[in-house]
Every structure is written in structure tokens, then in C-alpha cells.
Write a structure and sequence with these properties.
The structure is a homodimer.
Chain A: E1 2-5, H1 10-22, E2 27-30, H2 39-44, E3 52-55, E4 58-61, H3 63-74, H4 84-114, H5 126-144, H6 157-166, H7 180-190
Parallel strand pairs in A: 1-2
Antiparallel strand pairs in A: 1-3, 3-4
Helix pairs in contact in A: 1-3, 1-6, 4-5, 4-6, 5-7
Chain lengths: ~210, ~210
């Protein structure tokens, strides 16, 4: 099994984090961002993005699809239950991770840390990205104020989907302090056996 | 079962379309957009958005989570298989629907039809939304050029997630003509027993 990644890709980290927690062996293949839109990589992923998981010559693109694949293949009912209620609870947070967290925090991170002043490469202008991120973090606080985990009474792929960008708010110019319940949840995820960080996360204030 | 909707909401239509195809009875409750951020509705959905599905007093927010819930509850393995490969294939397209189609077509639709000239209410500026939409439609074409359906060899909730905004490109100022394989797939979805349109779709050129 191969995972196509880039060192500073938050979406790739979601997959790496879950593979590490599951204890699944894989080969990480670093891909240069500039090659993503080239014809060779586009065969693996028509969107020209990482991560891509290669299994027996098949390619699974999109971090959400990769998390679901790994959960179903290696996790039984633990990380993604298949009953209607349990699966819907998890899916709500996968949707939040692909909306508010990706278009909010991840876009603000690009606009702040990786492409400051270069509006052309970002989809969402910085001020709007920060407002959108705030909505996502507020929704997480409302859940986490009274629960340890996002979807169920145990960690699920909701955690794997939402952790990475919530742990990188400092690179997005967003202060996590007003979202205390999220900060405490970040520490719970960090305590899971097999947890791995990514570059940039070491700067998270304790 | 109640579904909170608004007449012109594409995300609400995804749920209505699938409920109709499944033949499931439900009560549609129209919600004024202005009330969505109020405290009463926020109890149903902390994001302050429609659709919300109410089942036995529980609320499922997010169209993706609602599609998954309905598929698992009423569809057996037909609309969302639970094997790792099949589920991952479907999830890829749910992700595309929440990314390129929602941030591309749906945002361009707001910027073109509902809030033209009012940049404050849109997340993605119009030119960028259109470029992002083009990527999503191109990825759909690559799949649909050689297959009848997006994820598997039959319709799944990938169709329910991706149809609505792909059928509303004219409201987003996007010409569907260059994406012929998508246009033909739209017709296949329209032929599914139980199909229902939403206002605006009647203007789709044949």
C-alpha cells in the first residue's frame, strides 16, 4: 500500500495519522506540488491533489474516502459504524472537516503562512476564510463542551478528519484559546496510541 | 420524519430527491433563510443551515450525512455499499460534491443569480468559483465518458450528491455544453423512477 503525500499537506496528514493509529504498514511517496497537475499524477487522481492511496494498483483519492476505506478495511465497526445513526453522526463531522475546516482553516493557513499576499492561489479570501473557520470551531466547541469525542462516545474517523487543521490554527493566524473545549480535545487525540504529528504541529502552544 | 428545507436550496433538494426515489414518506418544513442563524433553529443544526432531517426527535444535519443515513436505513447495500472498495468509491464523489460542486457551482450560483454584485454574502469570489466548478465538471467528464454512473455500475448516493448543482449550472453562469458526458448523465438521473426536480431546473436546456 502506497500513500502519496507532501510533508506540509494537512490532508495527507489525516491519512498518515489514521494509518499510524491503526498500525498499518505503508510506503509514503513524497510528491512535489508542481507535479500534481501533470499528466502522470492525474492518472492517480483526476483532481491533481494529494493524498492518494494506492492499493493493488487501484487509486483512492480524497482524504475522506481514504479514511472511510481504511476504517472499513481495518477497523471493523470501531472507527466507522455501519448502522444508520452511528454512520450519520460520523459523516456530519467529515462534512464539517471538508467545509468549515478545509475552506476556513486550511485556506487561511495558505493565505497566512504559505502564500501570504498572493491572493491568486487561494480559493477563499483570508478574511472570509477566518470567519468560516470560526463557525466550524464554534460548532466543535458546542459538541465538545459536553462530550469527549466528536461523533460518538469513542474516537472515530471524525477525529481523524477534524484533528489536523484544528491543530494548525496558529499557522492560519487563528488563536485557539477562545475555543478551550477544542484545545482540550486536541490533547485527547494526541494521547491516542500511535499518534503522529506533522511539521508545524510542534509549535502548538501547550 | 421531517425535513427542514427551503424551496431554492440545492442541498435540501439532494435529500428530497433521494427520499422521493426511495419512496419514503416525510414532512417538508419550509424554513426562512433569515431564521437559520436564530437560537431556535440552531438547536436543530449548530451550523445554522438546511437541510436538517428530524427523526424521532434527533436531528441529522448536513446533506452528506442525511444521504448516508437514508441509504443505510432504507437502501440495504444498494445505494451505499459497506465493503471498503465500494464505500470508498462512493465517498470520493460525496467529497467532490462538497468541494468542487458546492464551492464552485453553488457559490457561483449565489454570486450570479441570488446575490449578484453583493460579494459579502459569498465565500468564494465569482471568478474563482467558476474555475473551481470547471475542475469538478472535468473530473466528472473523465469518469462519465466511459461509465454510466459516477461511483459504481449502478446509481448510488454519489448521483444524489452530485446531481443537483450539476443540473443548476445555468443559474451559476456556467455552460454545461462543453461537458457533454455530464449532460447525458444528468438525463440518466432524471430518468430514475421517483425523480423530482426543484425550481430552476425546468430551465435546463434539453
Amino acid at each position: 500500500m502506497k500513500l502519496y503525500v507532501a510533508e506540509r499537506s494537512g490532508n495527507a496528514h489525516k491519512a498518515r495519522l489514521f494509518l499510524s493509529i491503526l498500525g498499518v504498514e505503508y510506503e509514503a511517496v513524497d510528491v512535489a506540488y508542481l507535479s500534481l497537475q501533470g499528466p502522470e499524477f492525474r492518472v492517480k487522481n483526476p483532481r491533481g491533489q494529494i493524498p492518494v492511496l494506492e492499493v493493488d494498483g487501484r487509486h483512492i483519492w480524497d482524504s475522506q474516502a481514504i479514511l472511510v476505506y481504511l476504517a472499513r478495511r481495518y477497523g471493523g465497526e470501531d472507527w466507522l459504524p455501519t448502522d444508520p445513526d452511528g454512520m450519520a453522526e460520523v459523516m456530519q463531522w467529515l462534512a464539517l472537516s471538508e467545509n468549515e475546516l478545509l475552506l476556513g482553516i486550511a485556506q487561511a493557513r495558505i493565505g497566512t503562512t504559505f502564500a501570504a499576499g498572493n491572493e491568486d492561489v487561494i480559493l477563499v479570501p483570508l478574511d472570509r476564510a477566518k470567519r468560516y473557520a470560526a463557525r466550524g470551531l464554534r460548532v466543535m466547541v458546542e459538541r465538545l463542551a459536553a462530550h469527549d469525542w466528536l461523533a460518538l462516545d469513542r474516537p472515530t474517523i471524525a477525529e481523524m478528519a477534524c484533528f489536523t487543521y484544528a491543530a494548525l490554527t496558529h499557522e492560519a493566524g487563528i488563536d485557539i484559546a477562545p475555543y478551550g473545549a477544542v484545545a482540550r480535545w486536541l490533547e485527547r487525540v494526541r494521547s491516542l496510541p500511535g499518534f503522529v504529528a506533522m511539521p508545524g504541529m510542534e509549535a502548538v502552544p501547550a
